[in-house]
Amino acid sequence: MLKIRLSRAGKRNMPFFRVVVTEHTAAAKHGYIEVLGFYNPLSKDFKINDLDKVKAYVSNGVQFSPRVEKLLKVNNITI
Known about the structure:
Number of strands: 5
Order of helices and strands: EEEEHEH
Number of domains: 1
Mean pLDDT: 92
CATH architecture: 2-Layer Sandwich
Low-confidence stretches: none
Oligomer: single chain
Largest sheet: 5 strands, mixed
CATH class: Alpha Beta
Radius of gyration: 12 Å
Strand content: 35-45%
């Protein structure tokens, strides 16, 4: 089953996350299919690059991780 979740990047004490599509059993850091956006927790910046791709994935049965779902709700992004 595919999931849309966060994959950590960045340096120590400077976290940065990518919003990726990956198999739920695979490692999010190396085994992702596609990068859909990013999240910077220090500046609270959250962006989805292509909302149409996210909608296409969701229509095919891909689920969000709880954290990504919460970030979408907080930033008023409707899918």
